[in-house]
Amino acid sequence: MKPLIGITAEVKEDGRHHMPEVYTKAIIQAGGIPLLIPLIPEEDIDELCERIDGLFVTGGEDIDPSYYGADPHIHLGKIAPKLDAMEFALVQKILEMDKPYIGVCRGLHMLNVVSGGTLYQSMHSQREEEVMQHLQKAERSHRSHPVKVEKDSRMYGMLQEEELKVNSFHHQAVNEVGKDLRIVAKAPDGIIEGIESTKHKFVFGFQWHPEEFAIEGDEASKRVFKEYIEAAGKK
């Protein structure tokens, strides 16, 4: 049976759930079955996590800084409190069960926050060092800046590239890294672009969006999702 991958979706103000097709395409292409996760009651989190084989937390709004003990910065963007609560509980449970996890952009941030880490609510105004443009003004498949990957990391084992150019759509970034997480990729300005768990079998966070490149045939990005689905298929 193909692995069932739960994918969280953005929740719009009118209650609609929104998910760009690229996320589901990347999972299908790699051999999994995508399952959109709407807002569900807290009491159903455990059962959902029992049924899915992996969790994919996607991009979206900023995370409420109260989750990492901070007050809202003046440049904090829009937050989604109900989605924050559900995703936080989902990621907690998936990590507890040691099921495969991929988080991109907001999904990287949520992984870090659940693990006890913190974020720059607005890296361009909170970080002392100069920051390059991370909210690119180009199509999503455009590779706007380079990222260097630690050669002794599991992420490098998947990508098989020590330096690659990536897309970039964020103004928040990882600040202090959470427990049992390792920084494995950075941009030239020092912004953290990739983290992986040192404790779990398959837990990775990407600041960029490898799904965009995977569906266009990029071999490095395709390997990420192929290995993710293989890990999710192991019982």
Uncertain segments: none
Taken together, the total number of domains comes to: 1
Instruction: Determine the fraction of residues in helical runs and give it as a percent range.
Output: 25-40%
Classify the beta-strand content into a percent band. Answer: 15-25%
Main beta sheet, described?
Answer: 9 strands, mixed
Distance, first to last CA = 11 Å
Please give the radius of gyration in angstroms. 16 Å
- The count of strands amounts to 13
What is the CATH-assigned architecture? 3-Layer(aba) Sandwich
Sheet with the most strands: spatial strand order: 4-1-5-6-13-12-11-8-9
Mean of residue pLDDT values:
95
Q: What would you give as the CATH superfamily?
A: Class I glutamine amidotransferase (GATase) domain
**Judging from the principal axes of the Cα atoms, what is the shape?**
globular
CATH topology: Rossmann fold
Sequence-ordered SSE layout with sheet pairings:
Blueprint: E1 4-8, E2 10-11, E3 17-18, H1 21-30, E4 33-37, H2 45-51, E5 54-57, H3 81-97, E6 101-104, H4 106-114, E7 119-120, H5 123-126, E8 145-149, H6 154-159, E9 163-166, E10 173-174, E11 181-186, E12 192-197, E13 203-206, H7 210-214, H8 219-233
Helix pairs in contact: 1-8, 3-4
